[in-house]
Design a protein that fits this description.
By secondary structure, this protein is mainly α. It is built from four helices and no strands. Keywords: Membrane, Transmembrane, Transmembrane helix.
Length: 140
């Protein structure tokens, strides 16, 4: 068995020695170019993937920060409006009138309050609906 291996190796060596040097150099150059190209392609792909992933993450974080800032701004608008409503004497007076009104009188006072609130909220595009509850639990 050892003899067969030696014979096989010798025949391989002899066949390599028979190949012209130009062919061996060409084969080695092709092998070198192929390995280099594959290595550069792999490295480029990995680096590109990392760069794209980082940019995508940064983009998502920027969008979330922008959304957060917009929500914060809208909440400040609503908070400011509710504070204004709480301290507005006209609105508070109208709510007090509604607390003591019944039937058609309540509906009339409610209409007046609705007009006042519409005039106040017309400048706030994002506010579509608002409900004020009287101390008696009725919505205005």
């Amino acid at each position: 068995m050892k003899y067969k291996r030696l014979k096989c190796l010798r025949s391989l060596r002899d066949s390599i020695y028979r190949i012209p040097v130009q062919h061996l150099v060409a084969a080695l150059l092709i092998l070198l170019i192929t390995v280099s190209t594959l290595a550069i392609t792999g490295i480029s792909y990995t680096l590109s993937e990392q760069i794209i992933s980082k940019k995508n993450s940064k983009y998502c974080i920027d969008i979330l920060n922008e959304i957060s800032a917009n929500i914060h701004t809208k909440l400040k608008e609503v908070d400011s409006l509710t504070t204004y409503i709480c301290y507005n004497e006209t609105i508070q007076s109208q709510i007090n009138k509604m607390n003591h009104a019944q039937g058609n009188s309540f509906l009339y006072e409610k209409k007046i309050l609705e007009k006042e609130l519409i005039n106040m909220t017309v400048a706030i595009d994002s506010l579509k609906e608002m409900t004020i509850l009287t101390s008696s639990g009725q919505s205005a």
